[in-house]
Fold these 2 entries.
Entry 1:
Amino acid sequence: MSSDLDVGFSLVALAPFFAALLAPLLYRFTKDSTGWVLAIVPASIFVYLLSFVESMADKQFISAGFDWIPAYGLRFSFFVDGLSLTFALLISGIGFFIILYSGAYLKGHAHQGRFLSFMLMFMGSMLGLVLADGLITLFVFWELTAITSFLLIGFDHVRQASRRAAIQALVITGGGGLFLLAGLLLLNRMTDLWELSSIFQFGPAIREQAVYPVLLGLVLIGAFTKSAQFPFHFWLPNAMEAPTPVSAYLHSATMVKAGIYLLARFSPILGGTVEWAVALTLVGSVTLLWGAATALRQTDLKQMLAQTTVASLGLLVILIGIGTKEAILAAVLYLIGHAFYKGAYFMVAGAVDHGTGTRDITALGGLWRTMPVTFVAAVAAAAGMAGLPLTVAFFAKEEMYAVLSFTGIWDNLFLVNLSLVIVMVLGNAMMMAVGLAILLKVFFGEPKPTPLKPHEGSFSLWAGALVLGGFSIWAGTQLGYFSHNVLEPTAASIYNFKVESNLYYSFGMLTSTPFVISALTWVLGVVIYLNISVIRTRLREFARDLGWSFDAGFDWLMFGLIRFSDRLTRLWHHGRLELYLVVVFVAFAAALLVPMWGTFTLPGVGDVRTMTFYEWAVFVIAIIGLAAVVVARTRLVAIVSLGIQGFAVAMFFILFGAPDLGFTQFMVETLTVVILALVMTRLHLDQRDSREPLDLLRDGGLALLSGAGVTMLMITVLQTPLDMRLSEFFAQTSVPLAHGSNIVNVILVDYRGLDTLGEIAVVMTTGVAILALIRIRGGGPQTGVGAKKRPRGGPGRKRKAAPRPARVSGRASARKASA
Amino acid sequence: MTEYLMAPFVGAFFTAAIYLILSRSVIRMLLGIAVLGNGVNLLIFIMGRVSPEVPPIVPAGALRPSELAANPLPQALILTAIVIGFALFTFLLVLGYRAYQELDADDTDNMRLAEPKNAPRPPMSY
Amino acid sequence: METSHNGPDAVSELPAAMLQTATAAGDWRLILPVVIALMAGALLLVLRHSRGSQSGFAILAVVAIIVVEIDLFWKVLETGPLAMTMGNWLPPFGISFAADLMGAGFALAASVVTLVVLVFFQAEIVPREQRHGFYPLVLLLLAGVTGAFLTGDLFNLYVWFEVMLIASFGLMIIGGRKIQLDGAVKYGFLNFLATTFFLVGLGYLYGLLGTLNMADISLVAPEADKRAMTGIAALFLLAFGMKAAAFPVNAWLPASYHTPDAAVSALFAGLLTKVGVYALLRIMIALLPASRDVLDPVLTAIAVSTLLVAPLGALAQTNLRRALGFIVIGGIGAVFAGMALPTVVGVAGAIFYAFHSILTMSALYLVSGLVERVTQATDTRQMGGVYAASSPISIMFLILIFGAAGLPPFLGFWPKLLLAQGAIENADWLLLFAVLANSILTSIAGTRLWAHIFWRQGREGARSEHKNDRLRSLTPLEKWAAQGSAIALVGVIVLAGLFPNLVFTSAGISAQDLINTQRYVDAVGIEVTP
């Protein structure tokens, strides 16, 4: 592990972030050529990564990184093998063209700098994700892709549809990510390792654990949400609200492939079991057919492409699920082929949109004349989509149909393999039909009037599409180099063994089973294309009859959640203080009573000393005072009885050896009564309790229970002997060391002087607070909802609403209490 | 051991206080707060165990108080707590009064500015 | 003993009473922050009529506090918990101040937030309010909070709680709007009850154990009567749970936090609930482990319900700051989740979360204050178009809301990671679910706020979404003081999120010291004698 590798790979992931920070600033200087400047970043990353291709062919691993959080044993670590390198090359390579393309697509847009910044951040997240070795490093980048794509999808934020799509994507992919987090942590729990590269060897052991199905489920939810697998597929088509460069990059070539990457990456750890195969092939099949059929329904270019992307992702999931050598080879081939042709096709769609002002295929036609370069790119892309010979995707089909004849996890279940092949044929044929429809309807036929006069865009707009389309064919012809350096290392990373591929063109293959099935696919594709209008109408009718979609389900769920929250919050946070208090006292009574439940014991009768007459008298007076306060109807009675219980308490303290306390209590009680009396002349006491009988019962019961709880806990504590260390110490040292004979005073000013300091602080602060309270003038600016509504006065009284400032000082507010 | 009989006595203070605090009228709640403070002080006092009448004061010339002297520590704690409790009570009292003046309500049920009764529903949009 | 109390030779029979060594100069930094805050508070009170000097002096005082606390933090990090006892009385007889890493770290975070809020307030100042003691109250609040974090004595903790409470009362009503009075009534009564419950629990605890020193309590608690101990622990749980605003006794928070000025609610969001959290961590983990087996299911129930219910509250609100109040509460659920997991990882997660919450929630309120300035509204339905109007505010809000939801690479992710790991370690699937579901729900609530306030161009109901015509730009003072201070705080949060090693280390050490109190007890200097 050399240090320049550490720096190099960290930079691969981080350089886009640094560039992103600079992008908005850069835009101020370089304006519309910013894309060209920033494209240097992915270009250099691509070139840097390319230098590792040769070493991957020898199945070398490279790991690199830094200590990140040593306290937790986490490293910021990277791990490069065939799989990561292929992904990283795709991301940086396509990224280069996308950055160029973005610059041209958003030419003159006020927020182009911001957009490029988001794109670069996304690119960095994606690169970090595929290169990550540490589980947490991987997760951090995983969620970063969700966050950056949130910003990108919502880029056109003025429209509600964009905002909705952004939130939807974040909730589904970000939420799925949290499942992944749980899975990763579980993996860490099982192996005590944080690094993927060291976990691989424990694959077999992990698969035998009892929690394996849980782990599998968590990881799969993470991958399926990200890669838009059924039933989480619906966010992807909505994400097309984003500007086209985003769709081309995130939603065809990279982000949605993150889930595929994850499955491939975890294949050696979690793969090869029946659970794995069943889950992946089943979900993949449904997604493939659903996506392809939905694509046929659309007439919007981007929607058609988006839905076929869903389908392609399903196909990839099926292949990884099957997990045989051929299937893995097919997956890698398809992955690369798809990235090329779909990226190209999206850029074509963007160029068409840019050049004509519409994306509806029924409104387009005959563009090959006016947009010739785009047309050439579209032909290459459509060829890839159809899997015609000379493209990478051709070999992908060859390999995937080999499932039928080769062994795998279901080696003797011919029917299962057959049905999988049928699913793939159907899916591929439908996708081919969509590809054909785009090519033929848009570029051939009669030119139709479009919002803009059709014109070819600038170099940056078509270069990417052309190069990607070209690559699709280049890789399909340079078989030796491609197989050895890219295909085999990548497949080996997924398959966990050395994989040898055998790609070539020959006449002999014309009679092989896979080729025959391929040919069948093409025929079927053409047939579907020819009937596309009928099929579209049927599918639309079907969807309308169904009357429900997953997308609508999302709204239902979200708004249902909001409505539920509203209800719940109104229930708990109603603004009625007395109910808040009820909750508090229920908790208080429970805290006291529940621990006592069944274990409470009374002390023996002998322990209870009789009391003197004076003591009884104080008790009785206090109780009378209390009772009188509770039932008081006039302020005089209330104040007097409050005074009575207070003075009884003071007497109590004096009786039991606390004269200081007694006198303080006298003083405080007097003050309390005086102040209350002053305030009560203005703030009037209701004649009677305004509570309903039922409320009275509730409150009374609660009060009694609380009182009982207080009593019981007291009795329980009193049954234990008290450790008098502290007081003994104070008694011994008060005179000799602290030089005071009144121990209570000595405690206050010496042993616990700090309490007294705090007490003084409280009194001082109270002064400030009350001062602030009194000096408030009413009618200040309002904040908050409904602030203008003036609440009604207490029941039975009507008070004049006083708009003038109210003061505490005498006259201004000398209202008569209407008692 | 007088303390056991004092436990229900303290319990009565709590009961009365809580009953008053649960009433919706601010003034009754304030009465309850005052009673509650007394109850808590009594509780602390009794928790320090109660002994008869000798205050914890060292007689002149002596080095330590009588063996029968009351436990001084709870007394010191209560002295602190009384003052603090009184300060808070005063604040709440003035607050209640000011709220009555400004909000024109002494029934807490009618104090609904911060959390209005007919609070708007959350919008169903994105 | 029976002959000695009047004998002339009593002095020679005295127990060891005083610490013989003078307090080391370095130990003064334990009490110095509180002393500075109190003295500055008192002085500001005197100075409250001189307008010019107040803010400068207050800021200077807080900076001094921060310097001392940084020093304290490093010292504790290097050498373990520190303690000093007032008046040099031998603990547990005098009041000890004791700082472990958790206390020192929280105190530091609290002062940093206070500093930021003071600077923010410069743009918020209304002369009338200044006169009514904003600065002294803030300093006194800080004194109370710092005292609570650093004291080693339970009754002293109560006193600092009250200092904090009464100062917060004052701050709550400063400004004097009617809605504030309403909020203050609910805040006042409910919080008064919480501290009263604390005092009740304290009385019982003294009656059971005969001591008030926390280190001492942790030594004698295991042998105490278990029923009584459980009841007392339950009382403390209620008292501090209310302070921390845990479900279902959290009503005071959403009823009041949105009513005062944004700077004040930012201060509250950072400090108040966290003191409750701190006290809970101390009491429930360090002091009363004996009662945990009974209370553990309760803790789990509180954690799960708070984690799930709180973000729903945020989802249902249309008042921005009230919605944020619910997000604060959700974080309290995360802390409870950590407490319900009695392992170092779980507790470290709780401590980390509380630290994150001090910084992030304050910053969120500050940013919401800026949003209110820019949109001149408090209701999210009346907001819109801030994204186009202000990039700094947008970036800050987004970072903070994702941080609050616990998404990486923001600060809030790391404690969630620890909590999830702790839940998996304990095979507590319910807690794991709640912690993760909280993240999803919080991000739904957060992104909705984001969409409505920032992305949406106009106000709710405007069908064609006309541009929000009520947007205004910040004044230079607001830009430099308010927005600048918020940016500084968010900068700290981002850096701490990207390089969380120090916080991880500290949270780990704090958790270990909480679970195994040996180092803390040694530092306080209690001798273990039966």
Note: Residues 552 and 752 of chain A are 67 Å apart (CA to CA).
Entry 2:
Amino acid sequence: MSTIAHPSGAGTAPGDGGGDASRRNFLYLATTAVGAAGVGALAWPFIDSMNPAADTLALASIEVDIASVKPGEQIVVTWQGKPVFIRHRTPDEIKAAESVKPEEMKDPQPDSARVQKPEWLILIGICTHLGCVPNFDGQNSSHLGQFNGWFCPCHGSQYDTSGRIRKGPAPKNLGVPKYAFLKDTVVKIG
Amino acid sequence: MALYPSKFKNPLINWIDSRLPIVTLMHHEYIEFQMPRNINYLWAFGAIGMLLLMLMIGTGIMLAMQYTPNTGLAFASVEHIMRDVNFGWLLRYMHANAGAFFFLAIYVHIFRGLYYGSYQKPREMIWILGVLLYLLMMATGFLGYVLPWGQMSFWAATVITNLFSAFPVVGDPIVTWLWGGFSVDNPTLNRFFALHYLLPFVLLGVVILHVAALHITGSNNPLGIDIKGPQDSVPFHPYVTIKDIFAFCVYLILFSVFLFFMPNYMGHPDNYIPANPLVTPAHIVPEWYFLPWYAILRAIPDKLGGTLAMFAAVLVLFVLPWLDTSKVKSMVFKPLTRFCFWLFVADCIILGFCGANNPEGIWVIASRLGTLYYFGYFLVLLPLLGKIEQPKPLPASISESILKGGGSVHAHGATAQPMEKA
Ligand code: HEM
Ligand code: FES
């Protein structure tokens, strides 16, 4: 704000125009600052109201009985509105997952860092590209992709038998949720 | 206590107009307003867009009275509209098909601007507001598509919101914020409905600004030269009003063919399957009017790169007035640029086909080349050609050009009289 732009208002004593203008500038500035702070403070509740509500945040955990899942099969359960894959891997699949070299991977991670028990692979079933659910319809499926894991129908990302991204636009491996084995055949997710 | 000196004779209109000169304003902008006398039917598409916006708002408000924005009820409420509500099928099919015809009209409108250089000085502001309108339309169309809560609705919502997750650090919090949860769910549907209701009215507000800016500079025309005197222009009414109404009729006939005989032609059968968060359909493609953008997204084999390219493809339109260095507006006088323009039109259509097909084999190559030409047109060809192409000589005036070519009108054209051919 330039001081010249403000003529001294009515009722100011002639001669003290300079001091008056700087006082007025201070008032403008202070008013603007208080106004901006007020609007800013009020904007936050508006914006934050769109974030997850308390009931959504109350993380439910689920317990799943996996006794009936045979080697080579997968079940899909819902956790926090998201699909979770529980895959019972065959020895071949485990071997394939463990033998991949880091330089062959886009997001290098050893298989051992992604499982608690090698035969059970538990993953968040959401493609890390744009969120579709990658397909797995069993060993004989045409959707497996060339890495025998999962194939995302949306833009063609391919995951291996450890759920690691090997080809396509997805940047990261399929996520691993927090889980614990309560018994050999019961797993708690969340 | 001065009143505005209204010139209207009717006492009621005069009473209102002298207190709020809105009748004078409308008279000035839509009756007397001078239009170039050589505009063609491509100049009707803005008005067609306006007509369709009104139709969208009208049918939308009626639909909103029957629709329920809840994941458990939304799909069934749309079926209820289709089967039980009186004329519900008509309202919904009108809304869905007019949405597509709205985009079609706006695409013609945009390409008209590109061809005749309507974005060039002094019409930059009109153009910028237009690009903003297009962005608002895309947002509105996307939000509306989610409402019926079918499989396509759900997965479109998932994929599009996830675009924001490509941004480092802020990406994931933004996506959670957009969703109001950890996946697309009831909070998402509920807010999408609120926004789908709101944005068309924002759109209407920006349309008013778009037209206000247009009425400062006046309309461009196929020759891209200024109105030099009264012999170059005709009053908006009746010349343009009647022409626009004729264009409305033709466009609405085409619309009716789709509305009454093939209302689901542009839709996807999968959207008649209720949303299922655990199963992604084998083919997910957006509505046809988003396909070229989708192709650009997939052309880049990197998540962040693809997202940025797609946003950049739309945003580059904002700076177009400063990219085109040509002093001559209309491509009628620039054969080389015109050739590149038609290639660009073909490119957009090819990108559309790329977006509709699986990203495999030839389609990957085509979408990469298409993306390259898309950006090349704006960032290389227009800046360069504007400097190197020598335009053909411009006619001295609009009237001179058309009276010479037309032949049927006597040459000493003073202000056009209603009986003359415009
Ligand atoms: C710019 C204008 C608009 C566009 C481009 C637009 C677009 C769309 C689209 C594409 C759909 C999905 C149609 C379907 O597949 O069923 C839709 C649905 C819907 N829209 Fe709009 N819309 C607009 C304005 C409005 C307005 C102003 C309202 C309400 C005031 C509204 C209310 C609704 C409702 C309730 C639905 C869900 C019912 C249905 O699926 O048919 N829309 N909209
Ligand atoms: S969402 Fe899976 S590849 Fe794009």
Note: The interface with chain A takes residues 155, 158-163, 165, 176-183, 185, 187, 191, 277-284, 298, 301-304, 306, 358-360 of chain B (CB under 8 Å).
